[in-house]
């Protein structure tokens, strides 16, 4: 069941874009980018750069034969700057040379004359200045304005959450080469082959069928290659098209960090109202999203923030407003959770602050307000097979929460400098692209005459094990050994109009399309088998472990022979099938609908220890009861959960993206941007919620890619609780990431001390 790429990864056999054997005469590209966050371009002087030996060409926006436009949702982003630049790192010119270093050296000789314009990096300031990406949106449930009266406790506050660098191991890159007839082939590290194809066609003024995009695998994507793999592929395509030569463009790590967008930082205001029984009656929240200088996927991400603004709680009266603010930073983009984590962090913060005021542990409020069956979300959908309560209860029991609490209490009583904290983090995450039309996929299955099988889908392998899952689907439907099945590259000529592999839907969408394609072929095979075995109908025959069974009895007819006979009899051994998630829709005018096929639930318990002298801390453990549905690959799914948890903890704790007031990224290398490593990683125990299945998912499983990321939010509050053990009365601000530096400041800051009750 292992992700079958693993052995190749370990032996170094796996190929990434920069490893693929390339056509002869390959040239190399380096991107020259803006050094100003906001400025008019008065003049670009290429003369010195062009003189560098080995330079073949330098392209600017003027060289684009088609439309200089790469915006996916909103057409507001150019491939190469024209008369102005809006962030540091914005591509201005592409230098093509015999090798990358020469191209880079030449780029350093390009001189641009700028006229500086005011720089805004803060979303609230951008909002005040009227700089919005799109009109703000509001989700409403119940009667928020008239329900504050029935609340005994009303707490207001603000919450900050930071960006996050994707840090995929393989940086952005692509190579392109010309093909006969004026077309272009592109090998790209993208989650969205069709986006690369569409945009390159637009840039080159070609019909889409003249642009073929091929993806072998990604060295990680995490959302960073859903939209932002496109420009580099389009640039390689542009240069290759203009020069009629193969061109490779690989971003060096630092350039990748400077030029690409990250998780969106948010600044948010909340107001929460709770009655005397501890029920949340009302919740009002406003999200200011820091979009960066162009829309990219920001509006879709903001929408998911709204969808998940109440996390796994039922709140009868909700008013959630969200606005995407345009700033002079690289356009921020998709990142695991897609805005969901930002929304959930705010409600968890609101509950934490309310608990503080009520003198309770936050878990008492959390537990009392968990979703039940048939509860309505602010967007109209109701829960179905809701597993909020059961995962919470199982977590309490399985991990002996009372023992944990006793031990923490004892530890804190005995230690003055070290303090421990515990938190609960329940999650509820909707599965489907929130843009309904994207919930489609197709698969192309070939059975070759030797019985081996090839399968192509829209799914992109990025380390999440999708290829192994697709192979399992084929192996299961045909009942053949999995070694017979090979997944092919993701290719726009074999599979057209692909949705990105994103929203955790890869296995469901592509798995179901694959299942259908195999079923079509299997039906043909059964027909020929029935004929050979003289069965009266295909309902009597079945393939079990590569052998045809007739009325439950094993026959002599084996898989390979069956395939040979089918071919001789001129049966179709190939099938293309399509799948579209049924029943999902959303009405943006009413802000109501049924956007998700289903929800994923779970509850984690997180423990942390803080050194209250130094501000350093250790996340000790994360224990989670997670709802995997009926997992058909527990090993991969567990790996996904563990990886997501660590990535979520990183976002909440040590990963800090810092731009200075001029919009310059200060954390542009691994010396200044810290990510979790094995020493950081806590003990992680992920247990499968028992007796869960899911008719909406492939083989009754549930999507796994993103949901467990949000357990990481519990890390913030575990640290916060440890801090509170040290300073019980301090009213500390909520601002993620909770770096050791910030923890230290909070331990000794002069914040308002609460009046003792
Ligand atoms: N796991 C690995 N190893 N590498 C990745 O890039 N991306 C995550 C998640 N798990 C990612 C990963 C994100 S953001 C998503 S949306 C899903 O995988 C996408 O794949 P799936 O739809 O097949 O789950
Ligand atoms: N998730 C991830 N990517 C997306 C989505 C989504 O809901 N919608 C559009 N792109
Ligand atoms: Mo994942 S953020 O949907 O690529």
Number of domains: 3
Biggest beta sheet attributes: 8 strands, mixed
The third-level CATH topology of the largest domain is Aldehyde Oxidoreductase, domain 4
Number of helices: 18
CATH level-four homologous superfamily name of the largest domain: Aldehyde oxidase/xanthine dehydrogenase, molybdopterin binding domain
Query: So, CATH architecture of the largest domain?
Result: 2-Layer Sandwich
User: What compounds sit in this structure?
Assistant: ligand MTE, hypoxanthine, dioxothiomolybdenum(VI) ion
Mean pLDDT: 97
- Hey, roughly how much beta strand do the residues contain? 25-35%
Per-chain topology:
Layout: H1 6-11, E1 27-33, E2 39-45, H2 47-50, E3 55-59, E4 84-85, E5 91-97, H3 100-107, E6 111-116, H4 123-128, E7 137-141, E8 153-161, E9 173-179, E10 183-188, H5 193-204, E11 211-215, H6 230-243, E12 247-250, H7 253-259, E13 266-274, E14 280-292, H8 298-307, E15 317-326, H9 340-358, H10 362-368, H11 388-398, H12 401-414, E16 418-431, E17 440-447, E18 453-457, H13 466-478, E19 485-487, E20 490-491, H14 506-532, E21 541-544, E22 547-550, E23 553-558, H15 559-568, E24 574-580, E25 585-587, E26 592-594, E27 598-611, E28 617-626, H16 634-652, E29 683-688, H17 713-726, E30 734-735, H18 740-748
Helix pairs in contact: 5-6, 8-9, 9-10, 13-14, 14-15, 16-17
This protein binds ligand MTE, hypoxanthine (HPA) and dioxothiomolybdenum(VI) ion (MOS).
